[in-house]
Design brief:
Low-confidence stretches: none
Number of helices: 4
Distance between the termini: 45 Å
Strand content: under 5%
Mean pLDDT: 84
Largest sheet: none
Radius of gyration: 18 Å
Length: 104
C-alpha cells in the first residue's frame, strides 16, 4: 500500500500534462505543435509497450493453464485493451490536430 502511495503522484503527471496540453491547444502555436508531437510519440511508445505486455501476459496465462494453473489468466486483456485504446486516441488526436491549422 505504501508503494502505491509513492507512485501515485508520479503516475498523475501524465494525465495532468494532457490537460495542460488541451488548454494550450485553444491558442495553437509552433511550440504547442512540438509539444503535441512529443506527447504523441511518448504515448505511442507506452501503447506499444502495453500491447506487448498484454500479449506476453496472455501467452504466460496459456502456459500456466496448460500446467494446471490459470488463475487470473485473463489479466493480459487489461493492458492489451488499454494499449490499443491509447494508441487509437494518440493517433486520432494527432490526425485532428494536423488538420486543424496549417500555419503551425
Amino acid at each position: 500500500m505504501l508503494f502505491g502511495l509513492i507512485v501515485a503522484p508520479i503516475l498523475a503527471l501524465g494525465p495532468l500534462w494532457v490537460i495542460v496540453l488541451g488548454f494550450r491547444l485553444w491558442k495553437p502555436s509552433a511550440r504547442v505543435a512540438a509539444a503535441l508531437r512529443r506527447t504523441r510519440r511518448v504515448s505511442l511508445v507506452i501503447a506499444v509497450l502495453l500491447v506487448w505486455y498484454g500479449i506476453l501476459a496472455l501467452q504466460a496465462a496459456e502456459r500456466s493453464a496448460a500446467a494446471g494453473g490459470g488463475l487470473l489468466g485473463g489479466f493480459g486483456l487489461l493492458p492489451l485493451g488499454l494499449g490499443i485504446l491509447l494508441g487509437c486516441v494518440s493517433g486520432l488526436s494527432l490526425l485532428l490536430a494536423s488538420h486543424q491549422r496549417a500555419d503551425w
